[in-house]
Amino acid sequence: MGVMTVNDRHVSLLENYNLEVLRTWKGRGALLCETDQGILILKEYGGHKDKCIFQDSVLRLIQSRGFINIETIVKNKEGELVTTDGDGTLYVLKTYFEGRECNVRDREECALAMETLAKLHKAAVADESLPFAGKTNSVNEEFEKHNKELRRVRKFLKEKSQKTDFEIYLMQCFEYFFRLAIQTAEEYNIYSSSIKEKLSSVICHGDYQYHNLLLAENSTLNIINFEKCMPDSPVRDIYLFMRKLLEKSDWSVSVGFDLLNAYEKVNRLEKEDYIQLYYRLAYPEKFWKIANFYYNSGKAWIPGKNLEKLVRVHEQEKEKIVFLTKFKEKYGILTE
Known about the structure:
- The protein has about 325 residues and is α+β, with helices and mostly antiparallel strands.
- It has eleven helices and eleven strands.
- Helix 4 (about 140-160) crosses helix 9 (about 285-295), helix 6 runs antiparallel to helix 7 (about 255-265) and helix 8 (about 270-280) packs antiparallel against helix 11.
């Protein structure tokens, strides 16, 4: 997605909308505009038009149920959600919220983020008014895809003769994390085949992380960027938000439990949800991300930050095991 510059071509796209533009300025990869309808944001849309229709339906459904702290897509004069420029690039115009990103170091703000997520999930129960959203990958399918990619990285590393410091370190810890990935996937596969899988009636945000949570002056959290929304277990959103915070806090048991308690105050989770969350957290996703990023990028130069991230993941493993053990005890999860 290219960075947009404030030029006539992009400003002229606003002529497709029924609004009066007072001024425009450049945002991060977007065009901000002050209009007679408030401040709006024009962004490139990387998905398909059908996905945008689903996204809009989800946003309207959630707002109709009283949860209003989310963005709205503005339709153009033709009644379309996306506007195409001369190059065929798609754009969407959305409402904009003033505010700063949720502070991951502030435990109260993070607890508020989990309470807000629970309220969102309660308002985002699907009904027959929503268009078909397409198929969502199951946890098993995600694990299998990641493991396939790890096999590819391992094969490449073994065949490479000259290795950088990053590649040497990656090789040293690869077998441990690879075995853990395989074991976690196998255990979850056994567990999931023993229960009747419920079709999810909740629409997840799909990318619930601090970048997409804006804290307003009245201490309200507004949620933006619903492009990845999909029907799935609420665990998808809970896991993503929790994993990032747990990594930043060296897998602090109190941080993890505080986050779950904040969510549970508003929306109760089932035993199956805790089991899925356990396996999602147990899977070495951060290791997979680093290894997969390395494999898919130009390997001639590997950023030093990648080695730092890898060392951190390796060093945090003891704390992570302690956290997972406490998690199993608290929620009565039996694993083989």
